[in-house]
Amino acid sequence: MALNPFSLPRWPGWRRLPREARDTLFLLGVIAWTVLPHVQHLPLWCSLLTGAVLLWRARLALDNAPLPGRWVLVGVLLLAAGLTLWSFRTLLGKEPGVTMAVTLMALKTLELRARRDAFVVFFLGFFIILTHFLYSQSLPVAAAMLVSVWGLLTALVLAHMPVGQPSLRQAAKLSARTALLGAPIMALMFVLFPRIGPLWGVPQDGKATTGLSNSMTMGSVSEVALDDSVALRIRFDGPPPMAESLYFRGPVLGQFDGREWRPLTPSFPSALQPRANLRVAGPAIAYEMTLEPLRLTTLPLLEATTAAPQIDGLRVAQRDDLSWLAERPVYERLRFRTEAHTTFRHGPVNGVLGLQDYLDLPAGYNPRTLAWAAELRRDPLYARADARTLAMALMEHIRGAGYSYTLNAAPYGRHAIDEFWLDRKEGFCEHYAAAFVVLMRALDVPARVVTGYQGAEPVPVDGYYVVRQSSAHAWAEYWLAGTGWVRADPTAAVAPERISRGRTLSVAPGLLAGTLGTVSPALLASLRDAWEGVNNRWNQWVLTYARGQQLDLLKSLGYDAPRWEDLSLLLIGTLSALALIGAAWAWWDHRRVDPWVRQMDRLRRALQRLGLPAAAHDAPRALAGRVRGRFGAEGETLAALLDTLERQRYSPQAATRPDTGLTRRFVALARRLPVLAP
Fold first, then answer.
1. CA distances from 198 to 141, 193, 330, 511 (A)
2. In whole angstroms, how far apart are CA 418 and each of 329, 352, 370, 431, 473?
3. DSSP symbols for 396-422
4. What pTM did the predictor assign?
5. pLDDT mean across residues, the chain
6. 191-203: per-residue pLDDT in tens?
7. CA–CA separation, 319 vs 325, rounded Å?
8. How far is C-alpha 49 from the chain's CA centre?
9. How far apart are CA 256 and CA 365, in angstroms?
């Protein structure tokens, strides 16, 4: 039949479709569902090509039209390879590989001529499911791929049921039952299979465009504050610290070029640099943290964390500026335990030459601020004042000179610090921290900017306090002789509720969230908390399940000093025992007789007692004809039962198990008929 691409095929109804067309359309639907989450990662041409091929194959199935020739497929494949090379400049790697795999699976549907071709599509489908977890291991993706697995298993079951026209519901039930039988093995492998880092951290969840950075410009932290996604979760073993003590220290920035702050590149030898010299007081605060992927080497830990986090496959060390540095950027979700002291001092007590680096200011920038600093030093009140007195004076100036705290400050120009202090007097935390540090340096006091997070959600979700990207913060540190580095947060002077209560500025929500929040703010908050609680449990129990939790499991089983070798032996032993149990069950199941065969055997024996020939290969319809031929009207009821059995077994609405009541009625009726002589 010639196909008109501009005409739509007439839909006959799902149940009226021939089985081959129905099974093909079902498989195409499963493939479309499996590929759909990849659309955001695939080039536009790949998504359009895949959709066009699947629609083309569906049209061919509905019209029972012949499949295209091999050279058409080769041409499309070469085109796809060329477009992939054009898009990525290579055919190797994650993105090109996923693109080609999706294209190959779509093209393979145009070769569905035999069961072997269908098995190739099934294999590619399961492979595509795995590739989703190279991008994200979130709960929605996992749920969507679970549906894909169920759909592919259902299509696989249909391919192994060549007789009759079994319903999709029957195949779906069988595939679900089969998957449930394999679920204990899957759970066992997940719990006991040795984790080898960092292979388990390949996915890069949360590809947000905002987040902490190793640099800061005026306005960059306010961009992070627009993001309401979760940055980290923290759970304390005891009572949580006060909100004003929840400072999570990230990158420390000491080098300023007039526009941008960066980590300091020391000008003096290592021996002359200021050391951490951490001194703590009070009891330690033990906590557990789940850190989202932040793509930095600096871990934003609670100030001042004193114990190195134990993270499988990742070494972490503390720097002299009190920040914690990982050996590589963190692209995976981390969970670890450590402890901190919120009462502490750090840094050199006496001056060292390396502190001069924290006095540097770029030439040609902010002349009015420098002049103001010189004027302050000429004031007898501040001429000989120490660093603490000067810092307190700046805080009082911020409180009383009409400064405002806002996310919507317009961009600043070349002399941003001059504009902030003397003209506009508005900004976010990075404006206050940067301006404070520049003025302190101009007053000949070593100072630096610290970035990270401050505060947390006041109510824990599932036992964890949530710290969002909107809690991103910048504060200052200045050096005080006899004490060391002292934290100074100018934001507390202009917006004390931001620090004391951990309240962040918020932006206008979207239409749906805004409407729901207006109608019922409590409902919106409870829905968000419920979802984040479920998501957190998924993260804690599945995504961050690592070698430490496995070894804890072995300890609970009686191992004093468990090792990964013990874990491997336990896994091998358990799988071997399950294999023996499975083999015994298979041997027992092999000896069982199929219920349909058992039913036919009883019916044949009943007919043989009547003198009718009934061989094992005779179908119920053939036996019904012999009953009518030998007994006439007297055997019509018996023949009708055989016709009913034929429909139950081989019709499109075939039953899953035989009707035992039919067997009993048949045997009872057969006993009433006269036995015929051979």
1. 21, 15, 10, 41
2. 36, 30, 9, 11, 22
3. HHHHHTT-EE-S-PPPP-TTHHHHIII
4. 0.64
5. 82
6. 777 665 544 444 4
7. 7
8. 27
9. 11
Dihedral of alpha carbons 631, 636, 639, 643, sign? positive
Give CA–CA dist 82/88, Å, rounded. 10
- CA 333/CA 635 separation, integer angstroms: 74
Q: Report which residue type is found at 35.
A: V
Q: Per DSSP, which regions of 224-299 are E strands?
A: 230-236, 247-253, 255-256, 260-262, 279-281, 285-291, 298-299
- What DSSP line would sit under 62-102, residue for residue? HHTPPPPPHHHHHHHHHHHHHHHHHHHS-S-SHHHHHHHHH
* Residue tagged 């504009």 (tokens): 419
Tokens of 265: 């590149």
Q: What are phi and psi of 249, to 5 degrees?
A: -80, 125
Q: Does the pLDDT of residue 205 top 50, yes or no?
A: no
DSSP 8-state secondary structure symbol assigned to residue 457? -
Cβ burial of 53 (10 Å; 0-12, 13-18, 19+) is buried
Reported as a single tens digit per residue, the pLDDT across 278-320 is 999 989 999 999 888 888 889 999 998 999 998 877 889 999 9
Residue 217: phi, psi to the nearest 5? -120, 165
For residue 242, give the amino acid letter.
M
CA geometry: angle at 391 spanning 280 and 218, to 5°?
Answer: 95
Pairing state between β 404-405 and 426-427: parallel
Structural domain boundaries in the chain: 14-192, 216-500, 511-543, 547-591, 595-672
CA distance 163 to 292: 52
